[in-house]
């Protein structure tokens, strides 16, 4: 539960920090107001770590730049048209540098056609706060006098663990539909419930998301997946119909369950896989940043099931080749959302290969099969380990134990083979140039065929020295002739 006394103490400590004190003194000496605003205030009250400091002021951009220059090591004005100046201010006590942004009070208006505001600068802090997305982000701490300004009741909503817009949510979301996705992200990030009127407005205005660029939608989806519990936000997006607007394959996982044909709930299964993936990811790499491609693959790994579902006589249900279908669907959707090619490649490869391990669980693989598994996974092997383990959601303890044991075994064998033969390199003894020399041929398709032959030998028999590889290559070439 939120302890307000502790929160106020943390706000006081934030105001006393050398960087904040330096900025406050500089703006006061220049005759301007300055306040810490938004996320840093919210996080201080909640006891969360604050990474960036955001300030707001009545000064215009040129004046902000003039004030911060003497107290900063660098400045940038990429947001000048929006009244934002960035700077690096040195903490003389710690010898470190804090990155800060200072923005002029805003009183923007929106045309309802695009989400780009008509930039208008305001004259009061209260007016600036009224235009922000949620009440918990619409609080400010005036400095240096340390006055908490909370015109929309953000503190009450923090205590209630509730997300609510400062204005009528239909007006707020009508102004900027991206705020609806931010509601899902903050709900997941903070563990807060969204006010019922706000949820209703999200459902009513879901189609207005069409005016938001794919890049902006992708950015919010990524930020949601980077939280510790994105499932809360995903459920909200599905329930309000927002997910249908940009990632319809996820709500499509809610397959109707035929009373005569039983199978697990694919939607709930996918959310469980996502949650288990995050748990395994954090256990294996506790200090690493959130692995967004892995989490995307976990969420989307079964999106091929709706279109491949077949109801069989006797009550069975099959989803043949849903891995391949899902990979194709994921590629198309991620491209539409403007994801980079590396992310798309990783996600689609993981989806396409997520079923491969279950063949191992059903019967022992030869060393050759294990090598091929490693070769095909390539740099995605570590992610594939996590996704495959997370994909086990059965409540049958005996089956779950058998699958876990099988994966322990394959990871052990991969490790042993890697130690024996430098498995990660996975290259034959002869490269393309040496193949041409040994066979006396010129560059062309035959070199590729010869290389693949040697690679198959490498996978089937392990490491061959160069002399043995040349002998086998000559014999193979003679047979080809």
UniProtKB/TrEMBL annotation:
InterPro entries (alphabetical): HD/PDEase_dom, HD_domain, HDIG_dom, NT_sf, PolA_pol_head_dom, PolyA_RNA-bd, tRNA_adenylyltransferase, tRNA_CCA-adding_enzyme
EC number: 2.7.7.72
Cofactor(s) the record lists: Mg(2+)
HD/PDEase domain segment(s): 262-405
GO molecular function, one term: CCA tRNA nucleotidyltransferase activity
Catalytic EC class: transferase
SMART domains for the chain: HDc
Entry superkingdom: Bacteria
Pfam families for the chain: HD, PolyA_pol, PolyA_pol_RNAbd
Alphabetized UniProt keyword annotations: ATP-binding, Magnesium, Metal-binding, Nucleotide-binding, Nucleotidyltransferase, RNA repair, RNA-binding, Transferase, tRNA processing
PANTHER family: MULTIFUNCTIONAL CCA PROTEIN
Name of the featured protein: CCA tRNA nucleotidyltransferase
Species the sequence originates in: Microbacterium terregens
Organism taxonomic ancestry: Bacteria, Bacillati, Actinomycetota, Actinomycetes, Micrococcales
């Amino acid at each position: 539960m939120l302890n307000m006394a502790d929160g106020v103490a943390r706000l006081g400590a934030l105001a006393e920090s050398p960087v904040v004190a330096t900025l406050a003194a500089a703006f006061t000496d220049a005759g301007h107001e300055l306040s810490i605003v938004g996320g840093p205030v919210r996080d201080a009250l909640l006891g969360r770590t604050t990474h960036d400091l955001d300030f707001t002021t009545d000064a215009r951009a040129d004046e902000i730049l003039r004030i911060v220059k003497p107290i900063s090591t660098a400045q940038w004005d990429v947001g000048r048209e929006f009244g934002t100046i960035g700077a690096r201010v040195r903490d003389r006590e710690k010898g470190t540098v804090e990155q800060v942004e200072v923005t002029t009070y805003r009183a923007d208006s929106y045309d309802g056609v695009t989400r780009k505001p008509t930039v208008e600068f305001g004259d009061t802090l209260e007016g600036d706060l009224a235009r922000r997305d949620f009440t918990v982000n619409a609080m400010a701490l005036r400095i240096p006098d340390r006055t908490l300004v909370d015109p929309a009741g953000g503190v009450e909503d923090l205590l209630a663990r509730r997300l609510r817009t400062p204005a009528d949510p239909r007006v707020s979301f009508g102004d900027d539909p991206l705020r609806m996705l931010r509601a899902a992200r903050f709900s997941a990030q903070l563990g807060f419930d969204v006010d019922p009127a706000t949820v209703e407005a999200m459902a009513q205005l879901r189609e207005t998301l069409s005016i938001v660029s794919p890049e902006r939608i992708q950015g919010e989806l990524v930020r949601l997946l980077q939280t510790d519990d994105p499932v809360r936000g995903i459920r909200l997006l599905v329930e309000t119909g927002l997910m249908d607007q940009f990632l319809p394959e996820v709500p499509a996982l809610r397959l109707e369950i035929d009373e005569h044909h039983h199978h697990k709930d694919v939607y709930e299964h996918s959310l469980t896989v996502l949650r288990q993936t995050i748990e395994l990811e954090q256990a294996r790499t506790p200090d690493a940043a959130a692995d967004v491609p892995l989490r995307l693959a976990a969420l989307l790994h079964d999106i091929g099931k709706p279109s491949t579902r077949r109801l069989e006589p006797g009550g069975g249900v099959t989803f043949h080749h849903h891995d391949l279908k899902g990979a194709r669907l994921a590629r198309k959707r991620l491209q539409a959302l403007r994801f980079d090619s590396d992310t798309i490649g990783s996600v689609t490869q993981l989806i396409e290969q997520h079923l491969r391990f279950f063949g191992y669980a059903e019967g022992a693989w030869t060393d050759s099969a294990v090598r091929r598994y490693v070769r095909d996974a390539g740099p995605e092997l570590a992610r594939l380990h996590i996704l495959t383990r997370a994909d086990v959601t059965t409540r049958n303890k005996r089956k779950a134990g058998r699958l876990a044991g099988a994966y322990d075994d394959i990871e052990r064998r991969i490790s042993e083979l890697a130690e024996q033969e430098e498995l990660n390199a996975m290259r034959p003894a002869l490269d393309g140039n040496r193949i041409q020399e040994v066979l006396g041929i010129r560059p062309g398709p035959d070199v590729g065929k010869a290389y693949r032959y040697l690679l198959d030998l490498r996978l089937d028999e392990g490491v061959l020295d160069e002399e043995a590889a040349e002998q086998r290559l000559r014999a193979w070439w003679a047979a080809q002739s």
